Amino acid sequence: MRKLLPFAVLAFFSTIASAQEVAKFKITILSTMVTDLKGVGEWGFSALVEADSTRILFDVGGRPNTVRDNAAELKVNLSGIRQVVLSHNHSDHTTGLGAIRQQFPDGVTASVLYIAAGFFVRTAAPAGMLKADSSAYVSSGGRFVVIDRPQKIGPGIYLTGPVPRRYPEKNYVAGRTLITPGGVVDDNVPEDMSMVVRTSRGLVVLTGCGHAGIVNTLEYIAQQFPGEKVVAVVGGMHLLEAKDEQLDWTANKLKTMGIQYFLGAHCTGLNSVYRIREVTGMTKENCLVGTVGTTFDIDQGIKTGWLR
Ligand SMILES: [Zn+2]
Ligand SMILES: [Zn+2]
Question: Which of 14, 50, 160, 165 has its CA at a distance of 20 to 30 angstroms from the CA of residue 198?
């Protein structure tokens, strides 16, 4: 194993260093709490990622049919999207999988599922969460790909795998525990991972619930992509319970990093987005609450309906 390590490290860096970037890039939110002109809201998250010719579904929503129905209303065709990323194993991000598979039983749609190491750490999975013996998914032709470190999954598209918790951001629900061989520990959602896309204008980061902490996630990405800048952060960041001091600390970190777009959906929290807007000096054009149907395009920025 020791002898193999340098090869593994080399392989990873050569992948990152190949510096493929996407020219056309768009994220469309398909599930989040707030809705606008189209679709219905729910406690959950899902987004479609379109990077040149690659289409990836990132999380699949909290109720069986929300993503399927919102996609239809937004005229987003999910047929043939092979790759699905599950940011973590919480039911508000995983429940819609079955309905999508049933709607498109073509053997292709949602047939590859990316999950981070530790995804099946919870022995008692409540309804909606995926179970370690997801035999129905596998027997219907589905395949799991476990990501245990930063990895490329498409041209210019990467997953972080589990994120080291350098700062005690604790952006997860307090009081939930995990039974491990070492005893009972806080369920800090160890499998939480984010997506990174290298665009012509810089890196874009997409988070599900951001349980690893958005600053931990962004600093980890900065380490993995030396010399590159994150220009946009999109998704759920679980700041809804954060106190003003933590929000200000987070906002100042984002400001220092030079983030140009902040689209906070799902568990980011409404007040949190507006406080981050105020502290960073961003505006209602580039720091917004994500609604169902909101898009982020690398050339056109954030486009939303009536709500700002
Ligand atoms: Zn969660
Ligand atoms: Zn969530």
Answer: 165
